[in-house]
Amino acid sequence: MQAMFGAGCFWHVEEELRKIKGVIDTAVGFTGGTVPGPSYERVCRGDTGHAEVVHIKFDPNVISYDQLLDVFWRIHDPTQLNRQGPDTGKQYRSVIFYYNEEQKNAAIRSKEKIIKSGRFHKPIVTEIVPAGQFFRAEEYHQRYLEKGRR
Questions:
Q1: Which residues are within 8 A (CB) of 11 and not within 5 positions of it... i.e. 6 or more apart?
Q2: Is 9 part of the annotated catalytic residue set?
Q3: CA contacts within 13 A on the Cβ side of 108
Q4: How many angstroms separate the CA atoms of 141 and 136, rounded?
Q5: What is the CATH number of the domain that holds 126?
Q6: How many separate domains does the chain show?
Q7: Is the pTM of this model over 0.90?
Q8: Residue 105, SS3?
Q9: Parallel/antiparallel/unpaired status of strands 94-98 and 127-130
Q10: pLDDT tens track of the chain, all 150 residues?
């Protein structure tokens, strides 16, 4: 199965998701914009509409989509509109891209649950939208933080 999340800079998000048992593969890239085949530099200029995302392949017999959503909420601040920490711009938005109605409904339930939990004292700004075409980022971005530790 597959999932796709945007939660700020994709380097950190990929690093967190890749460590999870049941995640088979991750790739960083872009989706949700209007320009075909965007480059990292173009997305950073802010004129493509794309979000930095992590595309995840996972084994649902080991980890559920709901469990991945729990990780998504834990690894970023979903109250920050078009930013995460010092990174600003629409490409850093909090967004869940769903591939089917089951994922859409799970994402909506998960968002409602996190709102009701009272964990965040500001409104949740996370978007829940259909997955569009995924454009893989340049190779030097893949597993970027892991490469930096070598």
A1: 28, 141, 144, 145
A2: yes
A3: 8
A4: 9
A5: 3.30.1060.10
A6: 1
A7: yes
A8: helix
A9: parallel
A10: 999 999 999 999 999 999 999 999 999 999 999 999 999 999 999 999 999 999 999 999 999 999 999 999 999 999 999 999 899 999 999 999 999 999 999 999 999 999 999 999 999 999 999 999 999 999 999 998 888 765
Strands (E) across 8-130 are located at 23-31, 51-58, 83-84, 87-88, 94-98, 127-130
| Residue of 9, 13, 95, 107 marked active site | 9
Question: Which two tokens mark 66?
Answer: 């709901």
Instruction: Give me 128's structure tokens.
Output: 């829940």
Segments forming the whole domain that contains residue 142: 2-148
Give the three-class secondary structure for 141: helix
Q: Tokens 């979903």, residue? A: 78
